[in-house]
Amino acid sequence: MSTMMQPTYLHRPFTLVSSKMDNYRTRSLTFAEKLDCQPGQYVMAWLPGVGEKPFSIAGDDPLQLMVVDVGPVSHSLHSVAEGQRVWIRGPLGQGYRLVGQRVLLAAGGYGVAPLYYLARKALAAGMSAEVCMGARSAEDVLWAERFQALGVPVRVMTEDGSMGERGLVTKATEAAIAAARPDSLCACGPLGMLEALDRQCEQLGVARQLSWEAHMRCGMGLCGSCELPAPQGEDGSLHRHSCQQPGWLACLDGPVSWKE
Amino acid sequence: MGSADLTCRLLGLEMKNPIVLASGIIGTSSSLFLRAAQVGVGAVTAKSCSLQPRAGHPNPVALDWGAGVINAIGLTNPGAEEEVHLLAEGRRILEPYGVPLIASIFAGTVEEFGQVAALIAQARPHLLEVNISCPNVADEFGTPFAAVCESAAAVTESVRRAVGKDLPIAVKLAPNVYNIGRIAAAVVEAGADAITAINTMPGMVIDAHARRPVLHNRTGGLSGMAIKPIALRCVAEIAHAVKVPIIGTGGVNTGEDAAEMILAGATAVGVGTAVWYRGVEALGTIAQELGAFMQAEGIRSLDEMRGQAIR
Ligand SMILES: Cc1cc2nc3c(=O)[nH]c(=O)nc-3n(C[C@H](O)[C@H](O)[C@H](O)COP(=O)(O)OP(=O)(O)OC[C@H]3O[C@@H](n4cnc5c(N)ncnc54)[C@H](O)[C@@H]3O)c2cc1C
Ligand SMILES: Cc1cc2nc3c(=O)[nH]c(=O)nc-3n(C[C@H](O)[C@H](O)[C@H](O)COP(=O)(O)O)c2cc1C
Ligand code: FES
């Protein structure tokens, strides 16, 4: 690389040092290098000849990603051997902010990845953290033991009751908010879960930071592909198909939205 | 001393400032048009559309290579029929802000340019930009329409015939041609009311570690600061060759960059890649910075500056 300028946003090769199966379709990838970034930001992971897709940052020093095998890029990332390289562009986007003393985390699926990184940063900043996890079934619950190892209390909800309590994650967050009011709720997970949490926080008057998934292409706020309706509706809902609200770019303005 | 006057007249359009959102940058929905209007842009150009919908290229489609951006989005768009609705809604939403809407079209053949133009005219945009210069598509022989006077003029005539006299048209030119002034003269002769220049500059970024081009499309269009001197030279040459207004576009990131574009002969100033460097707010900030620059330099209006550097 040129010594005159070091563009941060070119892809850089990262060497995989560990690739571990977390469950039947999820792997944690750990690299040799670190990345200067914030929890909630994401990277574009490029496998030359295969493709490039966004992934949340699960750890910064060294860089860690959690990858669910759903299609060509994630599948190929699963078969990268230790010692081989993955090309990383980023960090991109706006992450979570550390505010107040108490943070409540709510995770669905690979949403645990950015929240685990956030929990570590929050604890290091002297804050307290608690996590609520939602999953279909026990085999879909990810990294519960890693949060426990940090000393972060974990509430697990499964749709079939095979682990923790039966029900949706909102049941756990309601109980957690009632027990100890957080300064903000930070969540990452599927759309329906985020919308439900948004409504709940609106009702209970809790500030929330929600990380939205969108179809990302450029990751630079240029192509418009990742536009979501502004996530800050009066009634706490997404303004789907509404053109009365200015558009919101998940890749540049987000992925994390903020509402008091 | 009164503040500098930023109002800009482009053909029949009244703009509160000369900053135009360039085609292909967040011009994909009426809610994003609204966002641009709310941060203070002077006019908005929609993403280029074609007769049929296009998905575009797979990732990687864009990256910042250090002195600018390269992209090969692949002209993703919902097709002309859908675009008509988007533009009609966009126009209605921009109305209260006094922000004109510019539509943008492209096609693979001269005839198809006319067909798309006729459809898009139904949405009654304030101006129709004809993109003959996207480096990621070309005519059936692989030559961009913008590269040859005859094909550039043929496209312009086809569009002019399709939309009649009521809808003004701007033709968007490519920088990588031998004599951009002659191309400009040819399209004006063929009926163009304005020129937009420049589109992106074709380029390639190679990853030495991966030993291959980064973009999935291999090549793409360069934009941002790296192309500003190219854009200024092109605008100056066009300003010498023709009398019609120019939307000077390419590498404008600050108010001073915008001033340079006007000094080179531009009437309005297109801004695209600055959204990556400075956020969507750049569309308003650059206008404010231009006002502050003019104030500090004792320049009262855009007319006073226009083309001053090339006389
Ligand atoms: C900001 C952001 C952060 C992300 N973080 C992560 C992360 O940390 N870990 C991670 O694994 N993914 C993450 N994703 C999602 C990931 O980018 C996509 O799953 C990506 O499409 C995978 O690419 P692919 O080529 O493997 O599959 P694609 O071909 O893109 O997708 C294959 C199919 O799977 C579907 N699909 C996509 N995601 C899922 C899913 N989660 N479950 C079931 N089906 C799905 C798609 O709709 C498509 O039909 C994130 C996305 C965004 C926008
Ligand atoms: C991501 C991206 C997409 C673009 N798409 C289009 C397009 O659809 N039609 C078009 O005429 N120009 C398109 N352009 C070119 C811009 O409108 C503009 O001419 C060029 O980027 C130079 O201006 P800038 O340096 O301010 O970005 C695109 C540029 C970028 C960066
Ligand atoms: S992914 Fe292109 S604007 Fe967000």
TrEMBL record, chain B:
The cofactors required by this protein are: FMN
- Assigned keywords, A-Z: Cytoplasm, Flavoprotein, FMN, Oxidoreductase, Pyrimidine biosynthesis
Q: Which domain of life is it from?
A: Bacteria
The pathway is: Pyrimidine metabolism; UMP biosynthesis via de novo pathway
Q: Which HAMAP family match?
A: DHO_dh_type1
Q: Which residues bind FMN?
A: 23, 47-48, 131, 172, 198, 224, 250-251, 272-273
Q: Which GO terms describe its cellular component?
A: cytoplasm
Q: What is this protein called?
A: Dihydroorotate dehydrogenase
Annotated positions binding substrate:
47, 71-75, 131, 199-200
Where does this one sit in the cell? Answer: Cytoplasm
User: Major place of localization?
Assistant: cytoplasm
Active site, renumbered: 134 (nucleophile)
Q: What does this protein do?
A: Catalyzes the conversion of dihydroorotate to orotate.
Q: Which PROSITE patterns match?
A: DHODEHASE_2
Is Oxidoreductase among this UniProt entry's keywords?
A: yes
Q: What is its EC number?
A: 1.3.-.-
| Gene name of the encoded protein | pyrD
Outline the extent of the Dihydroorotate dehydrogenase catalytic domain. Answer: 6-294
Free-text cofactor note: Binds 1 FMN per subunit.
Please give the InterPro entries that the UniProt record associates with this protein: Aldolase_TIM, DHO_dehydrogenase, DHOD_1B, Dihydroorotate_DH_1, Dihydroorotate_DH_1_2, Dihydroorotate_DH_cat, Dihydroorotate_DH_CS, Dihydroorotate_DH_I
So what does this thing catalyse? Answer: (S)-dihydroorotate + A = orotate + AH2
Output the CDD domains linked to this UniProt entry. Answer: DHOD_1B_like (cd04740)
Query: Among its keywords, does the record have Oxidoreductase?
Result: yes
Record-stated family: Belongs to the dihydroorotate dehydrogenase family. Type 1 subfamily.
Gene Ontology BP annotations: 'de novo' pyrimidine nucleobase biosynthetic process; 'de novo' UMP biosynthetic process
